[in-house]
Amino acid sequence: MAPDLAKAKMLTVLTIDGGGIRGIIPSVLLGFLESKLQELDGPKARIANYFDIIGGTSTGGLVTTMLTAPNQDNRPLFAAKDITKFYLDESPKIFPQSRQPNFVSVIMAHMLSYLGMKTGRPKYDGKYLRSRTNELLGGLTLKQTLTRVIIPTFDVKLLQPVIFSTNDTLLAISEIKKELLMQNSEFGHHSIENKRMLVVSLGTGGAKYAVKYTAPAVSKWSRLDWIK
To answer: Which has the minimum average pLDDT: 5-19, 121-135, 214-228?
Structure first.
């Protein structure tokens, strides 16, 4: 059961970045953290027991789901160390590496990148991930998570963000605070209650260094340079 945020003396928040297969990085860190918590509070200690809100984007949303999904005894379905094993076992199918691109596809990719455009296709189709999570989670819904979760997504058809949350109140509070900070008169002039917060934010590593190309340099490329 999710904790009562109004009664909490300190609000604890865990956020997990996106990054595809690099989700294994926060999973390892969470496995280590959970092992240390178990040394203090016993073998049944789980990450979800210590955070009022857990949020994640993309692969971070997958980790969030696995941390907060309940089993039949309303205990975490997965230990944090299980998530690392999940990535090791399932990543080749969830994040398959594409075949060696042909000459035409490489040129098109470079041209689109140079123009600041994308192909419009997701990097991974998600079919295997959906089938695998359905097997593991069955009919579980957001209302059943062991703590509050927030999973931001993006609707590519409507071109707008969509946020999945266990509690609409969290989203409403966020919007009200934003309006108060902007001094929107419709929301009055109430002060925002100060509450102690502990935020743990886990990344998935930095992106590779992106080499910038110039038109004069590219104009001198050979076919081999384009393939590289």
So the answer is: 214-228
Q: How far apart are CA 132 and CA 218, in angstroms?
A: 43
Cα of first residue to Cα of last residue in the chain, in angstroms, is: 53
Residue 188 reports pLDDT greater than 50 = no
85's tokens: 């094993």
Residue 196 has φ and ψ, to the nearest 5°, of: -65, 135
What angle separates helix 80-94 from helix 59-68, to the nearest 10 degrees? 140
Radius of gyration of the chain (CA): 22
The answer to whether residue 109 scores a pLDDT higher than 80 is no
- Ordered DSSP codes for 14-70: EEE---GGGGHHHHHHHHHHHHHHHHHH-TT--GGGT-SEEEE-THHHHHHHHHH-B
Asked if 53 and 147 count as a contact pair (C-beta separation under 8 A), the reply is yes
Alpha carbon distances (Å) from 224 to 109, 113, 214, 219: 15, 18, 17, 13
Cross-strand pairs, 10: 196
Task: Encode 164-191: b = buried (16+ Cβ within 10 Å), e = exposed.
Answer: ebbbeebeeeeeeeeeeeeeeeeeeeee
Average pLDDT over residues 34-41: 96
How many Å apart are CA 34 and CA 18, to the nearest integer? 21
